[in-house]
């Protein structure tokens, strides 16, 4: 809260992004932060990262009342077998509940997904894209699975699939460096563009987004986003 005050008073900040990996891990701490934001009458809006199995309706309502406008969730997949493989510790039902509750209390929900999880077939990925549209978060991001050195998947690459490049400089969040045995490299490379286009170019999504435009900045952001999606 003292840091919030400094940013507001000294730098005139109006929007703060909290980048804790799981801001909601300790519910009592979050509830206290929200209480103090209200008590101190801080003129601020903010966003945070969370896990779907660490939120409930009471917490989300409190966060909304304290100025939270967006929460980013690592959904990863909407196929339970994929969640089990990466030991996510969450369920498909929890993914749907968290996004629904978040939006219910006026907070925008952003969901990130991973394609190319060991054992995931092309049909599994297509089903996740279908369910992604049913989940209907406000924003969606996709990334290829990366078997980082030191992790179980990184140590058992030959068991899970093929490493396209062993140069860790290429292990960025957007580069396809691994292909699971269950799909081809061409299939995997085509999934992310397909997901973005099918999600963001839906008439239902476009109408919803247009209704929320409030400023010239929103219009410019929408145009940049549309250009990025169409460039795939």
Count up the helices. 11
Q: What would the principal axes of the Cα set say about the shape?
A: globular
* Cα-based radius of gyration, to the nearest Å: 19 Å
As laid out across the biggest beta sheet, the strand order is 1-2-3-4-5
H-E order: HEHEHEHHEHEHHEEHHH
Indicate the low-confidence ranges by residue numbers.
none
| Largest β-sheet summary | 5 strands, parallel
Which structural class do the helices and strands define? alpha/beta
Terminal residue distance: 41 Å
Number-wise, the strands total 7
Offer a quick outline of the entry.
By secondary structure, the protein is α/β, with parallel strands linked by helices. It is 49% helix and 17% strand.
Describe this structure in words.
The chain is of the alpha/beta class and 232 residues long. It is built from eleven helices and seven strands. The protein has helices at residues 2-11, 27-39, 57-65, 80-85, 92-104, 122-135, 152-155, 157-160, 185-200, 203-211, 216-230; strands at 15-18, 45-50, 68-76, 108-115, 139-144, 161-163, 178-180. The strands form two sheets. Strands 1-2-3-4-5 form a five-stranded parallel sheet. Helix 2 runs parallel beside helix 3 (57-65) and helix 6 runs parallel beside helix 9. The protein is globular.
